[in-house]
Amino acid sequence: MRSLVLTVLILSSIGTLNAAQPRQQPFRFTDPFEDITTPHEASSYTFKWPIHRVAIIGAGAGYTLFGFLLLLLFLKPILFLYSSGLIAYDQFSRLNNFYVRLFERDSMPGGNWHYTANETSPNAPVPNFPTSKADFEPDLPPDGVKLPYEKSFEGVEEQRVLEVKIDQRAPKPIWERLGATGPRSYQEFRALPWPEQTPIDINRTHLQRYVRTFASFLSLNSNDNNLDVSYNTRVERVTKRYNITTSTENGQQTKTEAGWTLLLRQFTQTGNNSYKICWWEEAIASGRFNAPNTPDIPGLSQWANLYPHLISHSRQYRRPEEFANQSVLVIGGSVSGTEIAEELDGVAGKVILSVRDSEDSAHTPPRKMHLSRVPRNVSIVPEIKSFHPFTAPGITSGKVELFNGTILYGFDRIILATGYRYSFPFLPQYINTSLRANETVPIQGTDAKSTQRQQPLITDGTHIRSLHLDIFYIEEPTIGFINMNTGIETFLYSEFTSAALSKVWAGQAKLPSSDFMWARHWERVGKGYGRTFMAYGVEKQAAITKYLVGWLNQDAVKYGGYQAQSHYRYPWEGN
């Protein structure tokens, strides 16, 4: 059986973290969630197994719109979520503490910046699929077969081969003329600066080429024949590994946790009418932008059932010309919604953008910025209350009611730019869909540890739970997350969150005890879970960045390792 024994997964970028920089940063740091000075207690978390081998899932790069990835470590491994896989690989490799493997679902590096003009994802389900399902259902090998297991498919229609390929690689939610939300300096690998002749305002083409260039810089491109990377590979299931020892005295067996096992599925197209699938066990991770979110608006599912080809999610959008001279309703006032509305202006016959009020201050400034770019010809209206039942044939006869009582009708197309959900179908054991947004698993006993095995990571898909600093899963800190927050500069922020994971897993920084992490978590939860639970914004990102730098540098003095430099700048401060 081909398998990979892994102990740690590290995702990080370099640049901001300069190993040759001797100057130490101040060690006083405030808790970014509680606004008080946080001295780490004397006791610290002890990992259940040594961490030496790492699996990184996703050969992409961080970006504000699409940023994160899951990393899982296998057999003495760590489980990690994030989509800046290239940055992570670079950071982990530089520590020389780990054996690193990279897995990518797509056929080449780039993550969400791999644009495909003629391949789009299937229609988003209306209503949403259960949280346990993202954009695919795990495809497991037949019961009882010995891994690795391979199955070939011959004489298949070309359309079916394309469907299997799309299901495997998941076409990314970007469109032809998509631009970056910030200047090139905010979307930069510090180890590989942009060429000076590159425009300040960059677009999808610039970023796609740049990310692939960085992959080549690391010898990780699809044509580099690097045995550390496996393309066309998707994770289907993640389970805990155990070592079983037998006592020589009484023959009693003892089972101890030893890491993670990942069941992988690799797709290979062997011809226009043929392909093969291979399953084996290893470690892997995934990004968040695979599970489209469709709003729970009364009547929408009935409309989608009647006219599925006319109602689509923004992840399927590619070009404005597809909507020429049509009346289009765009639902959602964040990046995708406002930029799509802007592109449709002058091409579509009429564009209406429905926006609901922001629920969190972290979303307010970005929301205002995005809406300020919407052309005057685009009508901005309030949130939709309901889609009325049809009284005549044709989608143009349907009526849409807003919360202010206004009735709209005459739409040819509807685009749901309503974001994405957190969903990891390969981690069903950490999903509890019975809980609503602000509900928690009842705490039993007075010891904080008694809650650990009961608290899920995912419930309704609006947020990730049970995390310390939104990075480490408190129950099992060999599961880590990077760039799962919204409202962040992912290229920059991923350097610090990746550094936290790599340093902790390398023993160069210590987590507080489980009791301490749970206590801080419950204090934060007191403010409520929900859609904005993981929303940061500029000031929150800056506070957490400074916290991470202070903590990591303080521990570097005790346990060794380089000093991290924050170099944090607010967007208005420039370089």
UniProtKB/TrEMBL annotation:
The chain crosses the membrane at residues 54-75. The keyword Signal applies. It comes from the Eukaryota. Residues 1-19 form the signal peptide. Keywords: FAD, Flavoprotein, Membrane, Oxidoreductase, Signal, Transmembrane, Transmembrane helix. It holds the Pfam family Pyr_redox_3. The keyword Disulfide bond does not apply. InterPro entries: FAD/NAD-bd_sf, FMO-like. GO terms for molecular function: oxidoreductase activity. This is FAD/NAD(P)-binding domain-containing protein. It comes from Lentinula lateritia. The lineage of its organism: Eukaryota, Fungi, Dikarya, Basidiomycota, Agaricomycotina.
